[in-house]
């Protein structure tokens, strides 16, 4: 009798062997990716430490010192208007959330138990500069050197999770395998306190740079930046491939469906208050008081803690989408295509045609991919500034006013000003910080028509070589009101700029007009 196995048994053995190999390869790839993440983190930490040791930081000039002293006086003056009897700070561990502990409404510099970790914003040595510490948890509250909370607008949901006992107030994050998926920086801009004032340049490395403080002093330190890799699929890009505008290369544009490989960076805002005030041409005291008053008095330490210079505001952050090798963004010899895009949920996600937002976003992604495929770098930066930072409720009220009126381009900005009192609150002054963090020193193709974005970037010393308007065939008919009004108000165009009389003839679609 033959000892050979039947063919079906042999086939099963072979398939089992292949499946085992696939599983082993998958586990190996996962392990390698985890190692790469730790390598990226360690490389970033080492470069920061080497840079600090090899180059001694220059002390501030007498002019800078004078400005800082003058700023400090204005802040202290505001603080004096609000100071009351100092509240005691309990250094002991907070009781469980089911029990009530003494509420600490605010704190004061020099108060017993208050010992903030040093923060020298802009210092090249990360150890001297110090970590951003904002938590009010028991081991951290007395060491805080920042006002606000992690998570931006999501900090309220964090509070709800604690209040409803879905989240343990003492939970400590496990950052295993969360290291950056790509290495970015360090760049000289990271240690220039005038170039980066609205984000923490060390935010992606914080738990590893300051591990000794976290472990040794029981201080909570969290990242404010995360870097990952992903795939992106947009239906318009599949059409771009079919029309031949986008060509799959298996690296960036992966296949015939237009699927893209992308490196993504999420950033939460961290404001260095003296720098933010300077960007807006106001004194720090005015900024602090206005932030306090206009948030319903939510952050009293803006007034009482003039020694704390950092604020984590309750606003949305930004996401960077990088196509191609991230290392090329900072290379002055490599071409860069960039789109800076402000959130528009109605158009970006749900396809509203009342504005050019989604078409311009798609155009920006496509052009960024093409630049990367040609050996350059393509970047799209998405800011959470819904409705020109006026919010979606205000935005829809404006839509109602437009559609119940004649919706003429000549009245476009007036409709918004009548309701909001201002036509735009995005204030692009803080926007270029992310460009400095990415190491960008010039932009070859700026995929934006906005004069405000252009001016803010150029004022920060980053030249723009070419401005690229949205193609005419990508502009929805109903959005002519928006785009023609913006062009007349200063948006870049290679075409005709209408007069106000001509704008009065540009009319949007009515609610019941289904043929327009």
Automatic annotation (TrEMBL):
Region Disordered, residue ranges: 50-72
UniProt entry keywords in alphabetical sequence: GTP-binding, Hydrolase, Nucleotide-binding
Keyword Acyltransferase: no
GO biological process: riboflavin biosynthetic process
Regions of compositional bias (Polar residues) in chain numbering: 50-61
Domain annotation GTP cyclohydrolase N-terminal: ranges: 102-294
A GO term, aspect molecular function: GTP cyclohydrolase II activity
GTP cyclohydrolase II domain: residues covered: 327-469
UniProt keyword annotation of Nucleotide-binding present: yes
PANTHER family listed in its UniProt record: PTHR47259, URACIL-REGULATED PROTEIN 1
Alphabetical list of NCBIfam families matching this protein: PRK07198.1 (NF005536)
Family: Belongs to the GTP cyclohydrolase II family.
Protein name (Swiss-Prot/TrEMBL): GTP cyclohydrolase II
Organism in which the protein naturally occurs: Aaosphaeria arxii CBS 175.79
